[in-house]
């Protein structure tokens, strides 16, 4: 990294965020991930305009294999519904659950982790015991209980996934806060009269954000998998078409028609892979050791 | 005495985003057996890279030895195979580092780490290796060596750890020991102990030592000869007394003058420290002239045109500066 | 407290740790009964090895670590008894320069904002004048003001330390606590920063509390020197008296251990100081230095010596001087 010389040349400022963005653009994995995610998003959001078929409508004989009829290019499911229409219309719900669950995870995780790591002592003890409580609960079972107790709407599913996945983020945030709070610029901020609130949100958090952003990206992928798992067990929102729901509904016919579960499974795989690759790319971008000297 | 290690015109380049950085620029050095050679300079001057080059540990990529030779008793280490370098490292040339905590593996007992090092290079039994470890710990002045050999690194103080590092480095009776800032992380009283230890060991074993440091004080304590580095070049070399009392290069003079030395009888009069103006140049932007020219108070037009070669001013003292006579006269 | 004393520390104690469940109480006596005062416009150096408590003392003066006992007075404000908003206000008068120029600046803020932040937080000057004030601060520490929009990683160590100084000067403090401000810098840069600090002291009448392990630097910069060992001051005197006539065996050993940048002539004899400083957790009874002291007598191991005036305000704590 260039160090300013005493010469008079005008120097461009290099924001650490912009540096990271530049490194991300050079990261092979990250760019591939972005490309995959853009494809998935285009497919599910622009698709309906080009392929206006209702995924709930029965259009052909049940369990027609892909390529057998022009009416259903990717075949039909056990009720005779169009798989391609299902894939297109199942996307938004899946992505929605992933994003909302991810946001809930990150929000609770950062709040709990930040307070625990910053205040330490009793606050830390208390918050970490709660975190451990949630961490030792078997995540899938607990989410299933939550979903069965309430009506299985898309919101409840997102919330349930968020509630069972925040402890990891909280621990990560806490560890970052514990590390950064001992750095001298935090003491420096305090000695120029910054209040705790400012130190937490304006000084420590921006510097702790890099690993959290990586974690958040991966969390979205994991939440999508989680949703698929719940739907597979029949606990998804039955009124919202999602990839998970397609798998769940078709699981009994896997031997009669592989395409019924494989195709939505492939979409989930692609999306999760996209998020993972983006997470990988971000990790490279934020990790200065991997950047050239 | 004969030189056991001689470096000739060594060039190491690093590829960086800003361009090619020549971190070592045609440096030549000779190490005679049984002497302590100091290499002194500021961070980024190439002193540590010199050590890594000798050890065959230049990080590659981005680094690469692009020219020159490092000959150990006539064998060129630059050309040596990886397998051969493994034998050389630890067996013939060993190294100790600045940070004794991170250079020891925290999950193994220190005795085992020393024994392991011996087993790698010599065909002896485990029991003998352990005995050697204890013997080495005794030699570096660790009290109760049998007990300390069973200790883990975190159970030892910083000074002890550095002694362990020295014991490990000397366990295979190397001919050359490279010490990279061995006392920088230590307190002064402990630092003095380590200096004494290195001095004693050197006298006892005859191991040649290359001591890399930024501290002229450490050089004065230990080194027989000194090479001063600046921006990848050796700009002055000679006997320690000569360099300290009669430095020729303007940079060496500045380096000695800018440190507030401890006086035994300080006076009320406290002049400002003399400064070397400006900053160390970026290695990617070195011009064709002398690297020190932009900061040099004595520079003449030729200094910016052509890089001065290192030339002898007397039998043991060499300087890379066009204006030596002028500087001496001032 | 005399007229021109700016900082006065009385019997300061900072202990860390305490009883834990299932574990014996382990109390670290980082600072254990330290008293000193610094006259306005002068510099007090605190020297000592790692674990001597010198950095903790510095942090305690700014109330950046909890104080166990003792009082700290800056001017006529007793800073040790202030809380919350009063403490925040009082910190305007005392600022700190940190050791590590790489970790003392927030890497995600522009350096101009870093220097401006104290002005905003402490409400200094009119809002529209603050840019000019930042500009002036940059000039004062010898940086080009155009560089204000850059980020810390674009500067060298010495320049970062200048930025740290500019930030500290922003609140127009009377006292600046410097915790090893030059020990992470290359020697040539170190000289530049030391000269800058002296210049600023002359121009602004600053008072420094200067923490360092480097006796050469302390001798160069400080008017008074206190030597700390395991949380206590063992010797304290004005600069000339301390260096030319050290009293305490520890001070003598410390001075002898410093490598001299001149050729060895073989006549120098070091006071052999063996071992490392003991840990501040299990403190020895008696004199804390007794275990390493080359001239310790029996009494040293049982009774702690008092810090007494040995003439002309030269304080030292050693039984052999009584």
Helices and strands in order, then pairings?
The complex is a heterotrimer of chains A (293), B (330) and C (322).
Chain A: H1 16-25, H2 28-45, H3 47-50, H4 83-119, H5 121-136, H6 139-149, H7 154-180, H8 184-191, H9 196-232, H10 243-250, H11 259-286
Helix pairs in contact in A: 1-11, 2-4, 2-11, 4-5, 4-7, 4-9, 4-10, 4-11, 5-7, 6-7, 7-9, 8-9, 9-10, 9-11, 10-11
Chain B: E1 3-16, E2 19-32, E3 36-40, H1 47-55, E4 63-72, E5 75-76, H2 82-91, E6 93-96, H3 110-121, H4 126-139, H5 145-148, H6 158-170, E7 176-180, H7 188-205, E8 208-213, H8 216-222, E9 225-230, E10 233-239, H9 240-245, H10 250-257, H11 301-305, E11 311-312, E12 318-319, H12 324-329
Chain C: E1 5-16, E2 28-39, E3 43-47, H1 54-61, E4 69-74, E5 77-78, H2 84-90, E6 94-97, H3 111-121, H4 130-140, H5 157-169, E7 175-179, H6 187-204, E8 207-212, H7 215-221, E9 224-229, E10 232-238, H8 239-244, H9 249-257, E11 308-309, E12 315-316
Parallel strand pairs in C: 3-8, 3-9, 6-7, 7-8
Antiparallel strand pairs in C: 1-2, 1-4, 4-5, 9-10, 10-12, 11-12
Helix pairs in contact in C: 3-4, 3-5, 4-5, 5-6
Protein described:
Chain A: It holds the Pfam family BPD_transp_1. The complex is a heterotrimer of chains A (293), B (330) and C (322). With 293 residues, chain A is mainly α. Chain A contains eleven helices and no strands. Chain A has a single domain, classed as MetI-like fold. Chain A is 70% helix and 0% strand. Chain B is of the alpha/beta class and 330 residues long. Chain B folds into two domains: 3-92 and 174-259 and 275-329, 3-Layer(aba) Sandwich (Rossmann fold); 105-173, no CATH class. Chain B has helices at residues 47-55, 82-91, 110-121, 126-139, 145-148, 158-170, 188-205, 216-222, 240-245, 250-257, 301-305, 324-329; strands spanning 3-16, 19-32, 36-40, 63-72, 75-76, 93-96, 176-180, 208-213, 225-230, 233-239, 311-312, 318-319. Chain B has an eight-stranded mixed sheet, sandwiched between helices. In chain B, strands 2-1-4-5 form a four-stranded antiparallel sheet, with helices on one face. In chain B, a hairpin with a 2-residue loop joins β1 and β2 (19-32). In chain B, α4 packs across α6 (158-170). Chain C is globular and about 65 Å long. Chain C has helices at residues 54-61, 84-90, 111-121, 130-140, 157-169, 187-204, 215-221, 239-244, 249-257; strands spanning 5-16, 28-39, 43-47, 69-74, 77-78, 94-97, 175-179, 207-212, 224-229, 232-238, 308-309, 315-316. Chain C has one domain: Rossmann fold, CATH 3.40.50.300. In chain C, α6 links the parallel β7 (175-179) and β8 (207-212). Chain C has an eight-stranded mixed sheet, with helices on both faces. In chain C, strands 2-1-4-5 form a four-stranded antiparallel sheet, with helices on one face. Classes of the chains: A mainly alpha (293), B alpha/beta (330), C alpha/beta (322). Chains in contact: A-B, A-C, B-C. Chains B and C meet through α6, α7, α8, α9 and α10 of B and α6, α7, α8 and α9 of C.
């Amino acid at each position: 990294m260039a160090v300013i010389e005493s010469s008079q040349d005008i120097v461009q400022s290099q924001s650490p965020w912009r540096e990271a963005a530049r490194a991300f653009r050079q990261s092979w994995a990250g760019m591939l991930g972005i490309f995959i995610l853009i494809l998935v998003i285009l497919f599910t959001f622009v698709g309906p305009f080009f392929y206006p078929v209702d995924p709930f409508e029965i259009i052909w004989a049940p369990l027609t294999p892909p390529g057998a009829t022009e009416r259903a290019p990717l075949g039909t499911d056990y009720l005779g519904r169009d798989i391609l229409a299902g894939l297109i219309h199942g996307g938004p719900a899946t992505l929605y659950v992933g994003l909302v669950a991810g946001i809930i995870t990150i929000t609770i995780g950062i709040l709990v982790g930040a307070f625990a790591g910053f205040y330490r002592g009793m606050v830390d003890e208390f918050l970490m015991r709660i975190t451990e409580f949630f961490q030792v609960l078997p995540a899938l079972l607990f989410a299933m209980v939550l979903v069965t107790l309430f009506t299985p709407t898309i919101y409840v599913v997102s919330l349930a996934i968020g509630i069972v996945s925040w402890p990891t983020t909280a621990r990560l945030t806490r560890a970052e806060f514990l590390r950064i709070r001992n750095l001298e610029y935090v003491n420096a901020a305090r000695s120029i009269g910054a209040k705790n609130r400012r130190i937490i949100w304006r000084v420590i958090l921006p510097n702790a954000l890099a690993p959290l952003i990586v974690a958040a990206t991966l969390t979205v992928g994991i939440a999508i998998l989680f949703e698929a798992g719940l739907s597979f067990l029949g606990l998804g929102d039955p009124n919202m078409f999602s990839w998970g729901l397609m798998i769940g509904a078709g699981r009994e016919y896997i031997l009669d028609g592989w395409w019924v579960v494989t195709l939505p499974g492939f979409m989930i795989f692609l999306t999760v892979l996209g998020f993972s690759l983006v997470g990988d790319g971000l990790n490279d971008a934020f990790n200065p050791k991997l950047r050239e000297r | 005495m004969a030189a056991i290690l001689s470096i000739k015109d060594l060039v190491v380049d690093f590829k960086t985003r800003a361009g090619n950085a020549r971190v070592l620029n045609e440096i030549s050095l000779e190490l005679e057996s049984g002497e302590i050679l100091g290499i002194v300079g500021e961070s980024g001057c190439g002193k540590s890279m010199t050590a890594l080059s000798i050890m065959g540990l230049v990080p590659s990529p981005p680094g690469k030895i692009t020219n020159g030779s490092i000959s150990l008793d006539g064998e060129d280490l630059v050309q040596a195979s990886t397998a051969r370098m493994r034998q050389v490292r630890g067996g013939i040339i060993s190294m100790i580092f600045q940070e004794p905590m991170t250079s020891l593996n925290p999950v193994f007992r220190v005795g085992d780490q020393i024994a392991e090092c011996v087993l790698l290079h010599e065909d002896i039994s485990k029991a003998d290796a352990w005995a050697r470890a204890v013997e080495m710990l005794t030699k570096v002045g660790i009290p109760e060596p049998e007990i300390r050999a069973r200790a883990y690194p975190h159970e030892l103080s910083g000074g002890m750890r550095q002694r362990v590092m020295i014991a490990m480095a000397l366990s295979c009776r190397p001919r050359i020991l490279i010490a990279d800032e061995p006392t920088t992380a230590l307190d002064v009283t402990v630092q003095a102990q380590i200096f004494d230890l290195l001095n004693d060991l050197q006298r006892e074993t005859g191991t040649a030592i290359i001591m890399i440091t930024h501290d002229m004080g450490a050089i004065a304590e230990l080194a027989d000869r000194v090479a001063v580095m600046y921006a990848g070049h050796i700009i002055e070399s000679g006997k320690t007394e000569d360099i300290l009392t009669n430095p020729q290069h303007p940079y060496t003079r500045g380096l000695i003058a800018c440190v507030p030395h401890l006086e035994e009888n300080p006076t009320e009069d406290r002049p400002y420290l003399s400064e070397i103006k400006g900053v160390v140049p970026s290695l990617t932007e070195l011009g064709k002239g002398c690297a020190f020219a932009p900061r040099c108070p004595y520079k003449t037009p030729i200094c910016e045109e052509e890089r001065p070669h290192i030339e002898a001013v007397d039998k043991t003292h060499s300087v890379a500066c066009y204006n030596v006579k002028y500087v001496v006269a001032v | 407290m005399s007229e021109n004393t700016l900082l006065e520390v009385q019997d300061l104690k900072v202990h860390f740790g305490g009883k834990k469940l299932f574990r014996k109480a382990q109390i670290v006596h980082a600072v254990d009964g330290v008293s000193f005062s610094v006259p306005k416009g002068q510099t007090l150096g605190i020297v000592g090895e790692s674990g001597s408590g010198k950095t903790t003392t510095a942090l305690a003066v700014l109330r950046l670590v909890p104080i166990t006992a003792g009082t700290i007075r800056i001017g006529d404000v007793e800073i040790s008894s202030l809380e919350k908003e009063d403490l925040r206000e009082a910190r305007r008068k005392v600022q700190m320069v940190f050791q590590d120029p790489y970790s003392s600046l927030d890497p995600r803020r522009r350096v101009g904002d870093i220097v401006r932040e104290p002005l905003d937080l402490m409400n200094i000057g009119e809002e529209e004048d603050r840019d000019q004030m930042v500009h002036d601060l940059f000039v004062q520490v010898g940086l080009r003001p155009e560089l204000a929009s850059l980020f810390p990683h674009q500067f060298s160590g010495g320049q970062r330390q200048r930025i740290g100084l500019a930030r500290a000067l922003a609140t127009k403090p009377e006292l600046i606590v410097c915790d090893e401000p030059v020990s992470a810098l290359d020697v040539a840069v170190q000289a530049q920063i030391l000269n800058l600090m002296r210049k600023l002291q002359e121009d602004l009448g600053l008072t420094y509390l200067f923490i360092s392990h480097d006796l050469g630097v302390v001798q160069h910069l400080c008017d008074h020197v206190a030597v700390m060992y395991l949380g206590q001051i063992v010797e304290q005197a004005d600069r000339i008296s301390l260096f030319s006539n050290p009293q305490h065996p520890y001070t003598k050993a410390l001075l002898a251990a410093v490598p001299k940048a001149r050729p060895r002539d073989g006549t120098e004899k070091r006071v052999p100081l063996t071992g490392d400083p003991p840990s501040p957790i299990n403190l020895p009874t008696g004199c804390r230095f007794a275990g390493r002291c080359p001239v310790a007598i029996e009494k040293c191991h049982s009774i702690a010596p008092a810090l007494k005036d040995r003439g002309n305000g030269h304080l030292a704590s050693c039984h052999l001087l009584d």
